[in-house]
Amino acid sequence: MALLSFPQPSFSYRCSSISFSSWHQSSVVVTTAHPFRFLAVAAATTTHRQQQSTPIDKSSLIVAETASEDQLWAAACLRVRSFYNFQDSSYGIQDHKRYLAEREFEALKERIAGKREGFKRVSCINATLPLSQLSSSADDLCAACKFADNGEDRVVVGSLDLNQCLWLPEEIAGTKPEGIEADFARAYLSNVCVARELHRNGLGYEIVSKSKRVAEKWGITDLYVHVTVDNEPAKNLYMKSGFIHENDEPAWQARFLDRPRRILLWIGLPCSNEL
């Protein structure tokens, strides 16, 4: 799910679930000074580039919610790698990457802190692996997305946001549940991505599964995700996770927002009300 190079500071939806701190076609992160948008990135950042996948040892994989700023920064860097295509020979590219990561990082902290109007709760869910398992095969990933956790160096290899809200900006809204309690029982996935070096290891499925468990604890009964109509890998991931088709974005809306048209997928969840 690579986005266009140097996207504008308005988020754009590009893959399949909302993503990055904005939603546009080349999802950019939003800061308090810019309109909030999610990147409609389909789960499992499915880049359109084929490359060798690195096998992983899942016994050392951790998939969990995070509030650690170091880990949030690593997640922001992973999203920049996943949602944009860069020409590394371009002048000032590293500064541009850092600028995008800083915007996503600040927006992510703001959402998690409950400062975004219209959102009751937001959680960043990350998949991480020990640096020692990856350092020999993914140098760039390790350098960009590394963080320290209780004295151990780990790398964020997958990430998404779980958003408890009625709708996402500039996206078609779900219809379930109906009535006065809808704002407490509906949630959306956004910024779903997996490091391109580690595709086909089931990491997208792992983070989506974790998001469903967290949503159940929040009392969510209806979980949604947006995905672009031509993103078959993302649609396959969501279908495997139990999502089904609910609605299509009107073609005029996609043209107006200058982005690929999306579909809205839905899954019903049992409500555990543990929190």
UniProtKB/TrEMBL annotation:
Signal peptide: none annotated. InterPro entries: Acyl_CoA_acyltransferase (IPR016181), GNAT_dom (IPR000182). Residues 97-270 form the N-acetyltransferase domain. It comes from the Eukaryota. GO terms for molecular function: acyltransferase activity, transferring groups other than amino-acyl groups. One of its GO terms (cellular component) is chloroplast. It holds the Pfam family Acetyltransf_1. PANTHER family: GCN5-RELATED N-ACETYLTRANSFERASE 7, CHLOROPLASTIC, OS08G0260000 PROTEIN. This is Uncharacterized protein LOC111298954 isoform X1. The gene is LOC111298954.
